[in-house]
Amino acid sequence: MKQPRLSSVVERRLLVNYRVDPEVASRLLPGPLRPQLVRGYAVAGICLLRLGSVRPTWAPKEFGLRSENAAHRIAVEWDGPEGVETGVYIPRRDTASRLNVWAGGRIFPGEHGRADFEVHETPGQVRVALETRDGDTRVDVTVELSDELRGSELFADLAEASRFFRNGAKGFSATSSGRHLDGMELRTDAWHVEAGRVRSATSSFFDDPDRFPPGSATLDCALVMRDVPASWWPLLAMAGACASAA
Question: Which residues share a beta bridge with 240?
Fold first, then answer.
């Protein structure tokens, strides 16, 4: 079955980013992929995403759906037919939407687990907490909006960070079969991000010493996107066995 292109509004996209030891990141990646390095570090993080008006591109906006979602990501590169390509590998996707759980990997790329979310937002601050129904993953992040990007060892300024993540719009997700990666690309002509200052962040994924030995994953920065129209284009599945996220 041909998977449809989807239209949406990115109501809120919170990117919480870590700088990671490249060798540690490599162990979490499937064979076709390798870490994309910035100033000698791998880049990984959590994308906390609220989408609105999600529907096939041909459907009217009023029929769109809304959902809270999360993706754990590692920036990657791989050898494509025309040279090196960049994007992200997603070992885990989670959502508050039962429809997304059912449709992910069937109607559109990206298998999802189910999670419960707690969200508090003001114009100047965002808090998102989640716990997956299987008990495997917990996240609790509070970020304040800032006029500039401060304290990052990955990016010199907001413009550099924005370019990096815009160029990594292709995402390849682990699948339950373990034989291929589902692919989807975010496209928008209205790309805009703001700098964030992390007030607190806990993540069972990044805080796990078996996955990330002490000192191998350090919180670096946060970015916030709000009210951006975007479409989601299915990509051809990528062959290759999925790496373990454990």
Answer: none
What residues does 74 pair with on adjacent strands?
44, 89
Tens digits of per-residue pLDDT, 162-220? 999 999 999 999 999 888 999 999 999 999 999 999 999 999 999 999 999 999 999 99
What amino acid is encoded at 184 in this protein?
M
List Cα–Cα distances, 168 to 8, 73, 87, 127, 204, in angstroms. 19, 11, 4, 25, 24
Q: Is residue 146 within 8 Å of 62, Cβ to Cβ?
A: no
Using CA of residue 70, residue 73, residue 78, residue 83, what is the dihedral sign? positive
75 C-beta neighbours (distance < 10 Å), count: 26
Selection from 13, 232, 8 nearest residue 126 by Cα: 13
CA distance 191 to 31: 31
Structure tokens at 56: 């096939």
Residue ranges in the chain assigned as alpha helix (H):
22-26, 98-103, 158-166
Q: How far apart are CA 35 and CA 20, in angstroms?
A: 10
Instruction: Give the Cα separation of 135 and 64 in Å (integer).
Output: 30
- Compute the mean pLDDT over every residue in the chain, rounded to the nearest whole number: 95
* 97: enclosing H helix or E strand: none
